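[audit] Reproducing an earlier prediction to check determinism. Same input, same settings, fresh worker. If the tokens differ from the archived copy the diff job will pick it up downstream; this log only records the rerun itself.
[audit] input (388 residues):
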Amino acid sequence: MRNKAKYAKIVNICFIQAFFLLTTGCGFNKGSSMSFEDVPNQLEKSQCPPISHEQTIEWNEEFKANKLTCTVNTKITLMPSAPLAKVEIDPFTIYEIRKYAGYFFGSESILIDTIPYSESVNLKAGQVAALQADENSFIFQKDLNSIIQLENWVLRGNGYPGEPKGTKLNNVIISKKAAIDELDKIIAELDIQNCTLSSAVKARQISAQNEILSEGWYISYYLSVSEKLKPLDIFYTSGSGDMIFSKENSTGAPWLPQRIDCYIDEHGIQYFRFLNRIRLIHVEETESLLPFDKIKQIFKNLINTGYSHFESNRPEDQPYIKEVFLTTCTVSSNTSANSTTVVPIWVALISNQYYDDNYFDPYFIAVNAVTGAREIVEVKNNAEGAWK
């Protein structure tokens, strides 16, 4: 039988994710602070001949990770440059909250005198909707008494009591493209900037009595400072998974990257959440990226270190790297509580047979593409501080 403590940890992650869906955002914070003005100094220390154009390479290798063997067989896109940016928090005004509320509630009468605002609203159609808003969040849910479940949660079993493991959502009427197009239209009409699609997965809406109300798509958009880079949205990961690293101090900015989450079915928007709006102050491209051979060695060293505590050598525990890609993340800033720096990072998504068989999200390591330092992840709860 698998280690009970580890199984309890994974089950706890699932419950945290369910709560996290309604209440939180997520972001990266580096163990040591960095300001945008410090970045050129960091770059000078890691100068190397840049590649001249975008390239696709393959990484095929097996290497030891303590008692385990890690396998990697993946294609990787190398870029000649990557963005550095400075962003700052951009609080919602009461006028914008009224604008958003008017967009989703239409002709329904909503009076918002002040923020924070949190009220249920009786709709003409007979539903009881919910609206919650403050300077950093706008959350609309059309049916207050329903919950939303992503398909991978349902696949794990007990989406409602007694529902079997492996249950798929096969009754989605609206197409994935139509759902994304609808949210793209909303984002354009609300003039929301600096975000890009991070995920579109099947989901469903169920009542408190476990009645399936609809099946549709749960679509997420995440902070973006470059259209050419795929975002890493850690909501769709299992953190560092089985790996354990020594605790490091974090001096991150006290706010999280911008994100949008939306549930859409054939009847339209049922849930919409916009968190932590940011303003892009400055962006530039840097060619001073570490050679990828060095990044590979850093990943191998980190994976070996992360598994140094792990005693199992069972086949289902052997890790493999699913994907490696270049993206960006926010790092801590010591210059302002309201602004922070965005830097390029390499990300390795990792899984194993046990995670795959139980429909768990992959875990990951993030490495600064300029300095080679591991980027530390913190998941913060908007209302109650930080998950540790």
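[audit] rerun output stored. Observation attached for the diff report: Helices lie at 4-23, 39-45, 94-105, 151-155, 176-189, 292-306, 353-357.
[audit] end
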